[in-house]
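name: query_chain
kind: protein
chains: 1
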Amino acid sequence: MRRAEAVLFSAPEPLTSAQLAERLPAGADVDVVLAELSAFYRDRGVNLVRVAGGWCFRTAEDLGSVLGPADAQPVRLSRAAMEILAIVAYHQPSTRAEIEAIRGVAASKGTLDTLIETGWVRLRGRRRAPGRPVTYGTTPAFLAHFGLDAITDLPGLEELKGLGFLEGRLPQGLAPPAPSDSLALMADEDPLEADLGSMTPYGPDE
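structure:
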């Protein structure tokens, strides 16, 4: 447990159970170690939490307000960028045209570039459709930043209503989409070209 604790404290990013096992003595039961560490830190100033498919220490949620300002400047996104990020997260893999259809307005190239630069959105592949538009998806950094273990942990309809994002009566049978941030391409996606860096990432029709 002490070795696992030290490794997790010093890790710059969440570690998976397999990565942690490589740093522990042979035969160590990683699941038991993580469960005991998690229980030990449950009521302390830092908690051992699972995010982006891995484990890391995070400041307890109720203590965020007592901490001083961080040296790093927070990422500030425009409303358009937040809307596009939400659409990509819930509807991935999605193309720029699909994002625009959902928003009802055009998605500027600069806004998508900003989301890619933050490391929260990535280029996945190319849709098997006329123009072969690029598909977008979220990254492990997106999950880690928002404290999600998996993309399926995104708030559902009832949670969104409780947070005030959805108002009024919703259509009967409405259900949130089932996004997939798997590294594997979907059946209607092709790999990005090897020379993508020398061409526009938005495709001929974007």
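note: Residues 194-206 have pLDDT under 50 and may be disordered.
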